[in-house]
Each structure stands twice: as C-alpha cells, then as structure tokens.
Design a protein that fits this description.
four-stranded antiparallel β-sheet; 4 helices
Length: 352
C-alpha cells in the first residue's frame, strides 16, 4: 500500500506542474512509453519473429529456401534409399534365381520309334559300327555272344558265341592302327578282351587288361576316336582310359553326380557329344560326364521309357548306341529297343 501511495503521489505532483510541463509530462509518461513499446515490439517482431520465420520456413540470408532444399535432399535421399532397396532386392532376387539348381536330372527325351529286340539277350554292350550295322554283346556263362544286327529290320544277321568259361560284357566298334574296322568284346571277371573282325565276326586276337584290384572286372566299354583310346567301366565309380593297342591304363577319373557325390555301378558306356554317357546298374538313368574331370554334365531319368512294371526288376536298362539321328536304347532281355532323342541336347547329332 505504501508503495502504491508513493506512486500516486508522484503522479499528482507532476500534474500540478505548468501546462507545458503537464504536456511534456503526458508525452513522457503516456506517449513516449507507448511509442517505445510499439517500436520495441516491432523491432522484436522483425528480429525475433522474422528469424523465427526463417527457422520455420528455412530461408537463408540470401533468400534460399532451406526447407525446399531439405525437401529435395530428403526426396533424393528417399529415392537413393528406394534405389538401394530395389538394388538390394534385385541382388537378392538374382541370388535366389542363381541359387535355384540349374543342374537337375532331366526327363526331356522323346521315344519316337520302338523296334524289335531279342528278348533272350542279356544285353551288355550296344553300338553302331562305322559300317552302319548294330553290334550287340550279351552276358551269362554259356550264353555270351556277339550279334550283328540289320539297322533297318533289326533282325540278327549273324551271331557267334564265346567260350563258356567267359561271362561276356560290353563291346564297342573302333578302327585299329592300320585303319581296319574292329570290334572289342570284354569279359566280366576274366580280364580278357577279344578282338573281332566285324565283317565276318571272326575272332582275331585276345588281350588282357586290369581295372580296380583285386577283382579287375570289366563292365562297359566305348571308344574315343579323337584321343584314340578306350574308356572302360568296372562297376565302381572309376572310369579307365586305356591304350587302343595294348589296353594299358593311361589314366583314370572318378565319376561324380551334380551334387558332387561319387556314382558307382557304372555299366554300359557310349561316347556322345564329347561326353561319356553311362548306364547306372539297376537305375533307369543315364549320366553323361566330362572326360577330364568326371563331373556329370547331363543326367537323364528314363524310368518312363519302359517301366519296370512291364519288364521285371532284373531286366535293367543297359544299352546305349549313338546313331545318325537318334540314340538307340535297350536293356537286358527287353523285347524292344527305342529310338530316342534328347529334347534339351541341341547339336548332339550334328557334332555342335
């Protein structure tokens, strides 16, 4: 209260002054403070409020709109992030696609003709000769023989038996060091190979060979005319490359499937398109492997060709012969052979 009274008293004293004093007093007390307040408010608005606007709207001193730049920066950042995300997604998708196995066993084959086959033949080897005839060898002791077959009628033109002591196995047509057509016929456990004249089926000579000890068996055989060597299977996962004239082993490879596992029970063989194609004993499959690495390059499931229900479990597929425009396939005691084309193997018959 005393403070309030002191102020009132001060005001009263000033009012009791002269008119000029009163005017000056009024100006000093009323107008000037008001003007000063207005001025200070404007200044405050200009510097503080405008600065706030600059902060709010992002205007630089040079008039550049920071917010707009930030918007574009964020847009570019968002675009970059989106692009990065898309790129990452694309990479992930590519990785996913690449991780899908491309090497899977194929069923892409077409049997376009069925032809007759001797149902008593325990087929062990099958090949087309350069003379155009089909040559087949059979197994079982006392029943092992070499057959020459007409490629048009598929009738047996001539056949010869080997000694009952031998269990016949695979065979292949080839040309010897003197340019003569020859046929080699290997045996199961006897480490013996017979060389025949394909024209007359006359036995010319006998050679010996070794494979995997201690049994040194012979199963399938084919001829590589480029390397001038035989390729022999013995029921294991190993293929043996033998000198044409001496049957001495030059080298060997271990056969592996697409998944890297070793494949044993390699049986009848045929060289096709530069690959060694192998029947798998008791499997309706043919796998074709690289001559150097032994790795599987092509694998075919032919279980629908002549279903096991129609032929019996022991009558396994075993016989591959490359013709001019087809692959001839048969099996042990099958009553038929099939001319087949592999739909996904372009160039097989043209050498490409």
């Amino acid at each position: 209260m005393h403070h309030f009274d002191s102020v009132q008293q001060e005001l009263q004293t000033k009012k009791n002054s002269t008119p000029v004093g009163r005017t000056v007093f009024i100006l000093a007390i009323v107008i000037l403070p008001t003007t000063l307040l207005v001025l200070l408010g404007y200044i405050a608005y200009y510097f503080i409020g405008h600065a706030g606007e600059n902060i709010a709207f992002g205007v630089e001193e040079d008039g550049t709109n920071i917010e707009d730049e930030n918007i574009f920066d964020r847009a570019e950042t968002n675009n970059d992030e989106a692009t990065n995300t898309e790129t990452q997604q694309t990479r992930e998708n590519a990785t996913t696609i690449q991780s899908v196995p491309t090497n899977i066993i194929s069923t892409a084959f077409t049997p376009y003709e069925q032809v007759p086959h001797d149902a008593t033949s325990w087929t062990q080897g099958l090949s087309y000769g350069d003379d155009g005839y089909i040559y087949e060898t059979t197994g079982l002791r006392g029943q092992s023989k070499l057959l020459k077959i007409d490629p048009t009628t598929f009738e047996v033109i001539k056949s010869v038996y080997i000694d009952d002591f031998y269990f016949g196995e695979g065979s292949t047509f080839y040309t010897d060091a003197y340019g003569n057509d020859r046929l080699i016929f290997i045996t199961y456990e006897e480490q013996t190979a017979f060389i025949f004249d394909p024209l007359t089926l006359t036995k010319l000579k006998t050679l010996t060979y070794k494979t995997t000890p201690p049994w040194n068996e012979g199963w399938g055989i084919t001829f590589d005319s480029v390397e001038v060597e035989f390729i022999v299977s013995d029921g294991t996962s190993t293929l043996f490359f033998m000198d044409r004239d001496t049957l001495q082993v030059k080298r060997k490879i271990v056969v592996t499937r697409f998944d890297g596992t070793e494949q044993d029970s390699l049986n009848e063989l045929e060289l096709m398109g530069g690959l060694i194609c192998c029947n798998i004993w008791y499997e309706d499959e043919i796998i074709c492997v690289d001559k150097i690495t032994g790795r599987s390059v092509r694998e075919y499931d032919l279980s629908t060709l002549h279903p096991i229900e129609e032929r019996g479990y022991s009558h396994v597929m075993n016989g591959i012969a490359l013709g001019e425009d087809h692959v001839l396939i048969t099996g042990k005691r099958w009553d038929r052979m099939y001319k087949v084309r592999f739909d996904d193997w372009d160039g097989l018959f043209t050498g490409n």
